[in-house]
Structure formats: structure tokens, C-alpha cells
From TrEMBL, chain A:
SUPFAM superfamilies: P-loop containing nucleoside triphosphate hydrolases (SSF52540). Pfam families: ABC_tran. Keywords: ATP-binding, Nucleotide-binding, Repeat, Transport. This is Monosaccharide ABC transporter ATP-binding protein, CUT2 family. GO terms for molecular function: ATP binding; ATP hydrolysis activity. SMART domains: AAA. Residues 6-247, 263-505 form the ABC transporter domain. Transmembrane segments: none annotated.
UniProtKB/TrEMBL annotation, chain B:
Pfam families: BPD_transp_2 (PF02653). This is Monosaccharide ABC transporter membrane protein, CUT2 family. It is found in: Cell membrane. The chain crosses the membrane at residues 42-63, 70-87, 93-116, 123-147, 159-181, 209-232, 244-262, 269-288, 294-310. It comes from the Bacteria. It is a multi-pass membrane protein. One of its GO terms (molecular function) is transmembrane transporter activity. Keywords: Cell membrane, Membrane, Transmembrane, Transmembrane helix. Its main location: membrane. The keyword Cell membrane applies. It comes from Asanoa ishikariensis. GO terms for cellular component: plasma membrane.
TrEMBL record, chain C:
InterPro entries: ABC_transp_permease (IPR001851). Keywords: Cell membrane, Membrane, Transmembrane, Transmembrane helix. The chain crosses the membrane at residues 24-41, 53-72, 78-97, 104-129, 135-153, 173-193, 225-244, 256-272, 279-297, 303-323. GO terms for cellular component: plasma membrane. Pfam families: BPD_transp_2 (PF02653). It is found in: Cell membrane. Signal peptide: none annotated. This is Monosaccharide ABC transporter membrane protein, CUT2 family. GO terms for molecular function: transmembrane transporter activity.
Amino acid sequence: MSVPALEVRGLVKHYPGVKALDGVDLVVQQNEVLGLAGENGAGKSTLLKALVGLVAPDAGSIYVRGEPVRLRSVVDAANHGIGMVFQEQSLVPNLTAAENIVLGSEGPAVRRGVYRWEVMRRLAQEQLDKIGSPIDPLARTDSLSFADRQMVEIAKVLRIEERTQHPPVVILDEPTSVLESKEIDTLFAQIRRLREFATVIFVSHRLDEVLDVCDRVSVLRGGQSVGEVATAGAVPRELHRMMIGSTGSDDHYHENAAATVGSEQPRLSVRGLSGTTFQDISFDVAPGEIVSIVGVHGSGREDVCRALFGAEPTTAGEIRMDGKKIDLPSTRAACAAGIGYVPAERKLEGMVGAMSVAENMTLAKQQARCAGPFVAPKKQATLVDSWIRRLSIRTPGRDTAIQRLSGGNQQKVVLARWLVAGDIRLLLLDHPTRGLDIGARSEVYRLMRELAATGVATVLLADSLEEAIGMADRILVMNDGRVATEVACPNGAKPSPLDLVKEMV
Amino acid sequence: MSTAVALKPTQRLTGFMPLIALAALVAALTIADPDFLTQRSLIAVARTAAPLIVLAAGATLVVLCGGIDLSIAALASLSTVFLALWLPDLGGLATPAVILVAATIGAVQGVAHVLLRIPSFIVTLGGMSILSAVALVVSGAGTVRVVDDSTVRWLDLYLAGYVPMSAAMAIIVVALIAVVLKVTPLRSWISATGYSESAARLAGTPVDLVKIGAFCVSGACAGLAAVMLVSRQFSGGPTMADNLLLPAVAAIVVGGTAITGGHGSVWRSLAGALVVTLLRVGLPIVGVPSAYEQILYGAIIVVAVALTLDRSKVSTVK
Amino acid sequence: MTVTSEVVNAPRRQSRRGASFRDAGPPVALIVIFLIFAALSPQFRSTDNVQNIVDAAAVLAVVTCGITFVLMMGSIDLSAAGVMGACALTVSLLVANNRNDNDFGLLGIAVAVLLGCAFGCVSGLALVLLKVPSFMATLGMSAVGLGVATLMFAGVQPNISDTMVKGLAIERFLGFSYLTWIAAVCILVGWLIQRYTRLGRYAFAIGGAEEVLLLSGVKVNPYKVAVFALAGAFYGLGGVMVTSQLGAGLVQAGDGYDFSAITAAVVGGTLLTGGRGGILHSAVGVMLVMVLTNGLVQIGVSPYWQGGVEGLIVVAAVAAAVIPQRRRNQVVK
């Protein structure tokens, strides 16, 4: 066989608190379509970023056609013939399609800073012709449909052909996640066409697609390559098992500590809730119960969660807490109603990095550290120290800036924020273990169990299906902004991930 | 305050920047003119600094929330006109009335910023233009003389014979704001809003109210500064305080309050205001034409902002 | 997957509709306001007054040309007043005047424009090198400009005697003053830059999606500095034009033009967030502001209100542009 188009050996990348890549190996042959599969957090996106020069790996090496390379930027990667179609599209919306296609390497289309629109149109048309797209190159990008814009991106990536004599490597990151089925068919036709003169790496969380379009699939898990499968004759079930792996340690999810779910009145009762991205959502959560909402990217589950915290507007429906109807015009109203929210983006939305552990912990429940309208320093010290002990938060002290703590300890402080006043009734956890290592995850799970045991109701948007199944008493599957089905998830009779996946897509 | 823990090395240096600058300036001026360290000139500095301190202290709150208030000087000018016009009728009540009106105008700008989601510098830039127009119209574009200044003259008196009353008032205002922030949850709320508005909101902080409050206090301070100006000049004028905008902004950023929000304090602005005043008073002493004053303000603002801003927050600066 | 694609499509459809509304809105408003004032005031609709409005718009149009490029990037420029003051003094001291024996004529004008360019350059460098937000950097530069102007003024007003410079404001060609023709040329040049040069297109793109440019390997910083320098050159020319109108160099030559220009650009449909609008939009905005202020004076409103009217319309225009895209939890500084 000829030299591989691209080869990755033992790639390692650390982020504070996590090992995103832990010695990944990958071989991509010329003119093949390689699928890359893995759960959220398996290291897919970090690997891709390393391949286009957006992330500098800590160790390991990348070979392009047998030559070791160090990729410093997207341009650098393009010079080596590697280009990527990004998940969130990377086009300038207010420029024309032609300008986007030639952006950064206009060549003869711009002479001495002056545009030659006709040349530019021709250059862009050449690229669009390669993929047989009928788009008008001089159309403004934001007037094109999403699928058309994706074609523009592919046309843009294919310009790297002009920088090397070799066939390019085109990476497609989750290209189908927001396309309709007809558009997906067109895209797949494009990918097959691309294979004639290029090498393609295709990333998708939808296994049926991966098996459909790829020649070979490489599976990542926990930052490592766990196997390769030729797609001819492969079964989705087998691939899925590789992605998920064994459940690991025996009681990772502390299932023995699962609380008994109260059967009386539901703590949270949602009826017909609708907003911009979700319609007619109805479900109950009992005191002590953990309900997980699962769904693919774009299913609307994050927005439901935020709507329950008053951070997203709703257009219809009602929310009841312990039988009492509540209005949530603002996050403050939600706090007052005993609802707590742990956002997915901890560093941006969860914590105020420059402020101290104590201030972060008491931010939502100021009354817990105040006597009357005044802050009582002693009361605050006792309170914060007791929670630092109870949650075994490792910090030099309560006055340390929270940004100096490790991810797991930061998350515990953010969680503690809702507990300090002892009035929490419902916790909304949006990917509470994102970016945490195994040990920290386990501690967060234990904490969730303890809270459930005290009667706190929990809505969990899990990082992985495995986590959802492990933690939840009941699972709500969302699809296209609606509740597709509800699956009981009791200890000892857990559903299989595949059953859930079927409902998700 | 616990925010001090979060200081990075560069911030630790800028933390002392206003004090170092202050000491260096005093030293330099004393060398240039041995008469500078006399009671008379120090009193003059304190009197000149007072309105500036008050203006800067109020606007600091807005900056701490991550915004900016460019209308303070125009609002102070308008307030001098109001005060001069109302003194004959309202007498002693004119002062609180003016401060109340100024606070309301500040709050209205805050509401416009929060509800209409317009960037604060545009709201206050528009506000500046509107307030100047109102001041021109109300005053007939001329100076309004105060005939009977008995009710505001107390500000022009001396405490214990030496300390100008206006300077004492300015310090009291700064101390009051600082203490209220320190002993209530307000400090946490303001810092959280300034450092990371979305995180603050998702922790249930009343972000909108905090911002409106900051603009309200900023307005009230502009009103008080106007009272001080009238008590010194025995008149009000539609552009009387306009030239205080740059010194006030300079005072805030020289003090080390980050324009990106969160980090800073009103004490820093007090130090910054003294630095700015010393520069203003000192330039003629060392023989530099006062025209350089403006150039200096401009340079100081750019340099001080560059030194104090939170670079982790500004990946793309517009 | 239908719903998700709807989610992605929805805002786009909205913005397209919004764009056409924004593009048609200002010209329609201009016509409507013009007709209203014409109906209210016979003086307003006189040929003389219309000529007046157009002539009076010349300086503002030139300044707005400059600021439009800055706004297109999503930055802002508050330095116009200071730069214009400095350039006004520079030109008045370089052409024939009562303070010195200089008589450089056109060369003097060129030097003033270059000085404006240099001021803009410094603002841009403060932005890209020191990462000082543009409103702060340009506020500082405005003060520097006023200081430089005061230094040059030195207590004695330089009255110009250069007939060429003075004539620009007085002499007419086809019914309009030369200044108006200069403004028209500026608008044309600005439009050509915006449409046909990399500088103009990149300024537009920086406002649209700066991170995409960076990702594509475009070094945006030189373009940012160049845009501020270009804007400065326009302010410099504006300063020269004011000097020609006044017959003297004044520190306050640019007073109020900074804010009026922002008003005109914003009213014309240029978004403060960048990436939308352009020179032609701004030209319409300039006429809107001029018609409005002139019309109000003609129907008997005190001219002192001019700034107030501008303040109100800038806030209203920005709010109108922002409200359709409002989200809960949005961060506005």
C-alpha cells in the first residue's frame, strides 16, 4: 500500500484537570473516507483541532504523506494540504460566497489591494464546479441556505489543492447535525465525489451515517484509539459497544446510594411548555428523583433546562413547584422559588473566576451570609468553611480566587452555591461533569445522590448516555424539540443505550 | 476585599500605581517649587479636586459594572443651571432637589441601557448630547448668576479652619460608597456583574437593578459635583462642567479600575482624581503650558487603560 | 432533524427581512421628513434653503465617510473633534495667514490631511497593540488633538488670507459650493474603497466575523490600523473644510461633528456592532440629520435643541436596530 495520507502517533494533549488526548493513533490512507466515532468528551474535537493546527499537542507526532510535520495554524495546515469544514460554520456572513471561498489567499483576484470581481467570480466558480454546486458565487453568504453554505465551505477547503501538488485531506466535523435528510443525501454524494481526488475524515455521532459513507471507522474513547473497523459488514451495535466501553469501576454512579423516590405530589410539574426551540414539553419530577433528559445536539433539551430557570423565554405552558403554579420572568425568580442551575459552560457562566470561593459560594443566596442587610463576616466564614469541609473542596482557603482551583473543585463550589441556604428544592444540572476527570466525576455523582436522598429533585443533562443511564431514575428522550418518549430507568433494570439512541434520531 | 487575592503580578503593580504616581508627583512638584508644600497651595489643590473626586467616584460604580458613563460632565453642567435657577425659589431645598433630579436622570439612562440593550457608552453619549441641549435651552445659552448663595455657601467654608468643606464632603461621599459596598452584598453583585455578567445572572444576581443603581448613583454624584461648582463660582452655566469629563475618566483609569469591569474601587478613583488634579495644578508650576494638559489626559487614558484592562476578557477588542 | 434546521434558518430569514427594511427605511424616512417640513414651512421648501441644507451637509458628509469605515468594523471613533481641531489649525498656519509668512496652498491642505491620517494611525495602533477598546483610545486621541490644536493656537487666532482655501466655501459650481463637490467626491471615493478594495471589504468582514478572518490566515491588525488612518484622513479634510468656511483656524473647529457623524451613520443603517451599512447608507443618514435639524429650526424650534435631537435619534436608531435581536441573558456592556 502507498504511504498513508495522514498518520498520527501517540498524540497527547492535557488541559487543566483533564487529559483530552491520551496517546491517540490514527492512520488515514489516500483516497479513503475514514469515519471518526466517539462519545462527547472522547477527544474527537481536540484531535481534529490538532490536525488543523488550532491545538498544539503536548506529545506525539503527525505525519503527512510520511513526513513529520508541526502544524502551527490553520494556514500552516492548509499548506500541508489539510483543511477542515468546521461544525459551527466558519464563513463571513456579510461577504459574498466568492470572497469567502478565496478568503486569505485571493491570488490574482486582488491586485495591489484592488478587487477584480470578475477574476474572483471565476476562481470561486472553479471551486464550486469541482463539487458541482449551482450556487451563484456573488450571492451574499447569509442569503444562502444552511446546506448551500456548507457547500461553500467545502469549496473553500478545496482551495488548499492549489497549495500542494498532493491530494488534499478534507475533514468534515459533524457536517450532518443540522441538515435535512435530502441535504444529507446531497452531502454524501459530495463526499463520494471528493474521494475521487481527496482523502476525507468524516466525524459524526450518527453511526448509521458513518457506516453508510465511510470505508473504515476509527473509534475514540477517553482520549485513546480503541479500535478500527472496516464498515463493510460492521454492525452498529458492535461499534457502539466500542464507543461506550465497559462501565468501568463497579459503582461509579453510586447506584447503591440511589434515593427512594417520593411517590406523593411531584416536586416539579411541567405541562405543555413551549419556547423558540421546544414545543409542548410535559413531565414530572418527584422529590428525590433524578430525571435525565437526553437528545442529540439541537434537540432543544438545553433550552428546556434554561427555561425552567427563567433564563430562556417561554411562549406557552405552565410550571408547578409542589403543586403551586410559578412564573419565571427572571433567573432571580427561579432562585427565590428554590430552583438552582449549574450551567454547562462552567468557566463562562458557572463561576466568576476572579472572585473568591466564598463570594462564589454565596453569590446566589446572599441571605445565608447576611445579618439583616449586612454581610456578617463571621457567619460567612463559618458557613463557607463548613461547606468546604462537607464537600471536601480542596482549596488553600475560602478567600482564594475560584479560578485557581481544579475543575472538579470549582464545580463543587458552584454546586454548593445552591445548597448554602438549605432551601433548594430543584436542581437543574447542565452537563455537570463536563471536563472533569474520573475521580472528580465520581464525587459529583456522589453529591447528586446525597442531595436526592434529602429530597431534592434533579433534572440532569448528562455528558454521555452512559452517565444518563447510570444516574437517572427516569429518562426523557427529546427529539426535534419534543419529548419523544419516557423510559423508566430503575436500578437493576436499566435500559440499553441503543434503545435510547433509536428514539433520539 | 477578597478580590485582592485574584491579582495577577501586573495587577499587583497597577494596584499601587495611583499611590506611586501621587507620591512621585508631590515629590517632583516640591522640588520644582519649594513653595508647593504649603498650606495655601494644598488647600487650593483640595478645593479643585473635590468636584472631580465626586464625579469620578460615582462613575466608578458604572465602570465596575463593566459599563461607562460619558454623560456625567454634561449632567453636572445641567445641574449647575438647575441649581442656579432654583436657588431663588427653593432656597435650601434646591440642593437636594438638584441631586434628586440628577439621580433620576442617571437612572433613566440606566433603564434605557438595560431595557433597550443599547451599549452604555452610546446611551450616555446620546444622553450627553441631550442634556447639553437641555442645559442650553433652559439657561438661554448663558451663565446664570446666583445672587443669594447663602444656602450653598457652606460648601465653600473651611472645616476646622483648614480643610475645605467641599473636599471633606468629597471624602465623605467616597467613604460612604465604599462602606456601603463593603458591608452589603452589593460589592459581590457589582463585581460579579462586571467580571462576568452571564455568570452573575445565572446565579440569580439582580444584574439589571445593580446596573440601574450604578447609573443612579453616578447621576446623584454629578448633581453633588454641580452643587460644589456653584458654591465656588456663584453661578451656573450650560457648559460649566463639560471639561471635567476627560479628567474624571482619567481619574478612574489612573486609579487602576479596569475598564473591562469588576476590578477596582472608589478609593482608587479618589487617588486617581488627586493625581489628575496635581497634574493640572502642577503643569504651570514646572513651566509647561496648560495646553499640554489635554494631551496629557489623552495619553494617560490610553496608557492607563492598557495597563489595567483584563486581557483574559478581550480576545477581540473592538 | 427538521426542527433543528428551522432553528438555524429562522434567524437568517429574519435578518434578511430586517436587512431590506433597514436598507429601504432611511431613504423613505428622509423623503417623509422632507415632505412633512415642506408642508409645514414655506421657507423650508425654498430652493435657497434646499441648497443651504446640501451645502451645510458637506463637512458632516466627509467626516461621516471616515467614521463609517470604523463603524463597519464594529469599532467606534470619538476622535473626530480633536483631529479636526488640530488639522484646522495646521492648515490655517500653513496657507497664507496673519500669523506667519507661510503660503503653501495645496501642500498645506495635504499636510493637514496627512496629520489627520497620523492621528488615526495612532488610535488604531493603541487598539491593536495595547488592546485599548476603540472608544477609550479615540477619546484619548481626541483630547490629544485638542491639546495640539491649543498649542498651535497659542492665544492668537490665525485668520487665513489664502483665496483658494477661502474660495472653496464661497465660490459655486452648478449652484453648489466647492465644498459640496468635495464632499460628493469623498462619498464616491469612499464607495469605491468600500466596494473595490481589500481594505474596504475586509473592514466590512471584520465587523461580520473577525474570528473567521483570523482562522483563514488573514492578519486583521494592519487593516484595522489602516481603517483608522483612513478615517483620520477624512477628519483632516473635514478640518480643512471648516477652516475654509470660517476663514480662520479654531480649536473648536470639530465641535459636535464626532457625535453628529455617529448619528448620521447609525441613522443611515450602519450597525454599531459592525458588518452592515456603508458609505451610501451614511450619505442618506447625513441628509436625514441635516434635513431634520434645518427643518426644526425653520419651523421655529430653538437651534440649541440640535444636539438633543441628535441624541434622541441615535438612541432610538440603535434601539430599533438592537430590539429585533434581543435575547434574554444577553450581555450588553
